[in-house]
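FORM 12-B: Structure-to-Sequence Request
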């Protein structure tokens, strides 16, 4: 575990997209902008400082086959931490990772409980697999288990249809989302396709994961209702390989995936231009490795987001969306220092010089 001393961060401290300071201090694990009067043992770190990065779609405790043991979960969390990700929204995991909360050297996790899916309509060993009449009950249960979020599987391949299809009727979604909101939780949903989105938005969904099926007609409604998207573009990059693997059995599904992949950047750019909140998520922990946050920020820029907006999607804006502190007076000192200005080139995020978690240099 890292040392915990008085730290002096000097250079350029990116407190927010428009607010830049010359220095901050870390005293007793917390941020202050006032020089401590009696500090003697001071470590100075120079560079460009950002709030600890956010991966808003990540799965600690999960791999391609289901829940993993604690040792594997620890390795996953450490990989994220070392990449500068100090806050994770765990978008569904069958593993109990509450023990991580007691570790001062691991990122903070905002949990969404376990995925809730339709029977035989998701990855084996990942989700509660239920029928529509049970959706409200299970959503309320996961709202109590999570940290203010619940994760639904909104669409998946329907083997009889041979293509992606919605998993839930609107009335079931309305009851489930109302139950979550009554418990003080927000609801997000895995969605690849187009036709699952209208019912989810009408039912009051708060966020859509992947959102590759977002259409021009729905953009004004998403923006008006503040429905966020987490595009997970580093995961969407796998669609061509998925399509090739399933084409012989499900040709319509494979063709659909390719179309969604081809327009992925245009979809994200249109959402941003329409005022839809966009946040960074990597979908690490299923088939993807952890620690990909820098790559996802770069993908958002490639899709057309201004660099400052892509940075906000992984830092200031994402932290505010999740109700967590940034670099504010008295806040826990979670920050990352870089050698160069990430606003000039977001690829700088791939090379953190110093990671400070709860005031400790990692």
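FORM 12-B RESPONSE
SEQUENCE OUT:
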């Amino acid at each position: 575990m890292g040392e915990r001393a008085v730290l002096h961060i000097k250079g350029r401290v990116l407190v927010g997209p428009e607010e830049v300071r010359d220095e901050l201090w870390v005293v007793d694990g917390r941020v202050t902008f006032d020089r401590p009067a009696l500090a003697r043992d001071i470590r100075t770190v120079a560079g460009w400082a950002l709030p600890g990065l956010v991966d808003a779609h990540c799965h600690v405790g999960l791999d391609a086959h289901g829940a993993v043991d604690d040792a594997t979960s620890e390795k996953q969390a450490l990989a994220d931490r070392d990449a500068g990700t100090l806050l994770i929204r765990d978008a569904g995991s069958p593993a109990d990772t509450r023990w991580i909360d007691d570790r001062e050297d691991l990122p903070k996790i905002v949990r969404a409980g376990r995925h809730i899916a339709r029977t035989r309509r998701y990855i084996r060993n990942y989700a509660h697999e239920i029928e529509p009449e049970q959706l409200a009950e299970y959503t309320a249960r996961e709202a109590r288990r999570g940290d203010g979020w619940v994760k639904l599987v909104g669409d998946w391949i329907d083997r009889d249809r041979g293509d992606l299809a919605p998993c839930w009727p609107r009335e079931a979604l309305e009851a489930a989302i109302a139950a979550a909101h009554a418990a003080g939780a927000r609801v997000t949903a895995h969605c690849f396709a187009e036709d699952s989105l209208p019912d989810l938005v009408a039912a009051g969904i708060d966020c859509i994961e992947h959102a590759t099926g977002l259409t021009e007609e729905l953009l004004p409604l998403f923006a008006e209702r503040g429905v966020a998207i987490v595009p997970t573009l580093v995961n969407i990059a796998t669609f061509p390989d998925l399509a090739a693997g399933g084409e012989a059995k499900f040709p319509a599904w494979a063709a659909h995936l390719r179309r969604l992949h081809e327009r992925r950047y245009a979809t994200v750019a249109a959402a941003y231009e329409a005022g839809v909140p966009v946040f960074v998520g990597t979908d690490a922990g299923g088939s993807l490795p952890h620690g990909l946050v820098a790559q996802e920020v770069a993908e958002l820029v490639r899709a057309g987001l201004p660099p400052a907006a892509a940075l906000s999607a992984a830092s200031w804006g994402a932290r505010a969306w999740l109700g967590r502190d940034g670099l504010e007076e008295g806040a826990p000192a979670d920050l990352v220092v870089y050698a160069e200005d990430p606003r000039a080139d977001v690829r700088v995020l791939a090379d953190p010089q110093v990671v400070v978690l709860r005031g400790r240099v990692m």
